[in-house]
Amino acid sequence: MASSQISLSSSFLLHKLPSPSLHRHRHRYGQAIACTATPSITSQPPLPTTNFSAKYVPFTSISTPTTESYSLNDVVYRSRDGGLLDVQHDMSALKQFDGHYWRTLFDSRVGTTKWPYGSGVWSKKEWVLPQIHDDDIVSAFEGNSNLFWAERFGKKFVKMNDLWVKHCGISHTGSFKDLGMTVLVSQVNKLRKRTTIPIIGVGCASTGDTSAALSAYCAAANIPSIVFLPANKISMAQLVQPIANNAFVLSIDTDFDGCMKLIRQVTTELPIYLANSLNSLRIEGQKTAAIEILQQFDWEVPDWVIVPGGNLGNIYAFYKGFKMCHELGLVDRIPRLVCAQARNANPLFQYYSSGWKEFEPVKAKTTFASAIQIGDPVSIDRAVCALKESNGIVEEASEEELMDAMAMADSTGMFVCPHTGVALSALIKLRGKGVIGATERAVVVSTAHGLKFSQAKIDYHSMGIEGMECSYGNSPVTVKDDFGAVMDELQKFLS
Q1: What whole-number distance in Å separates Cα of residue 304 and Cα of residue 164?
Q2: CATH number for the domain including 355?
Q3: 81 is a domain residue
Q4: Which residues in this protein are found as N6-(pyridoxal phosphate)lysine (predicted)?
Q5: What's the total number of domains in the chain?
């Protein structure tokens, strides 16, 4: 049988191992997937001598040209009119090298131990933060996460043979947030070391995963981290991470949106650098997951990519990664994007369902997908742009649907978070409607490790969630210490 997963070579190796590139032949109509190994690229092409650059520009400059711009060394989060910013790369300089050059360069860095290119983010340094010195980079060799062929889930639950799960949660702190945080903390490290800008620490509001990533990378760079968390709204596994990494943690009696309001006020009064996705630097790291997916498919473009959405920076990050690959000639199209939201926190879904008439924030209700329990997302404009430009879709999942989908995935060998359950539930619905075809290639983005949400899984499998059938629950069977009693239960199971 063919390998059930395609993974970029481990970045945690202490010595260079051969890293064959896996060629997966595109299949249709249910025939078996075949993977064959070909020799890896043993040397990278000459590094470009061109001076690449990037700057902040108003996000609206995508559609409305402007002369307003800022250096990445400026501490600025909003444009003059209060809008979002975006990191704009010098595309004319990047276009001096064709798509074949960039594909070859990026592929040559897979599995290397050469600093910092063994990181899945910094292997694309020229497209991420081109003007930073290697010595200023703070990295745990994040990225290079497994692209898992979800063969059994696909065939059993959605009648698909070409379904993949991008396990971004298999990372340094257990979520995709590492991809963006390595970029942001590296830039802060540079500013503290090489400029006179007074930055006493880095702060964020968080539903869990952002604070874990921020505190870990700041600890590695010896930079103080400050975290605002909504009290009693995140898992203990998420809470312990910033505490263990010596962050200053404030547990505040409000929701994420309240924490976000407070941290924005604080960062205007104190020289604390804001690390939330309002800061567009993080998107530069997160977009590399999209590039990585293309690499893992030997630069073939999937038909669909489904991303859970809360504060909505990630759906734009995936769009931006795919768009850069298309614009620079690495691929000939971009996939259609789906943003999946929990019904209890679904402002984007409501906006989409209204035909994009008028956006209205909502008061987010409690959801097992706690990291996307956000009613007033900062990156709403970014998400709308990504979806419109990719002919995208927004779907939602109820609490029962997302928990059932999580359990279904786990029953086929995965161990996913509730947010991945939201995305899988969206896939199930879109397959049921015939929007996603049986022979199309779809990638579901798994944003965090299931171990962060073990209590939710315990509650589900113990049938302990009020008002939920827990249809795929699997409770242990209690049996007395007796051979006959054990055999009776085994006979029931085996029959």
Answers
A1: 10
A2: 3.40.50.1100
A3: no
A4: 177
A5: 1
Strands (E), 90-200: 147-149, 163-167
Looking at residue 382, what is its pLDDT? Answer: 97
- CA dist., res. 134 & res. 151, Å (int): 40
Classify residue 412: in a domain, yes or no.
Answer: yes
Rounded to whole angstroms, the Cα distance separating 115 from 101 reads 21
Q: Could you give the CA distance from residue 224 to residue 222 in angstroms, rounded to a whole number?
A: 7
Beta carbons within 10 angstroms of residue 55's beta carbon: 17
User: At how many degrees (to 10) do helices 177-194 and 209-221 cross?
Assistant: 40
**b/e map 78-96, b = 16+ CB within 10 Å:** ebeeeebbbbbbeeeebee
Domain extent for 178: 1-53+90-447
- Residues 347, 451, 147, 130: is their CA dihedral positive or negative? positive
* pLDDT given at position 13: 32
Alpha helical stretches, state H, 311-396: 313-327, 347-353, 380-389
Say if 493 falls within a structural domain: no
* End-to-end CA, the chain: 28
- With respect to residue 144, please indicate whether it lies within any of the assigned structural domains: yes
Amino acid found at 349: F
Residue that the structure tokens 């996603």 belong to = 436
- pLDDT beneath 50: ranges in the chain: 1-7, 9-42
Per-residue pLDDT at 289: 98
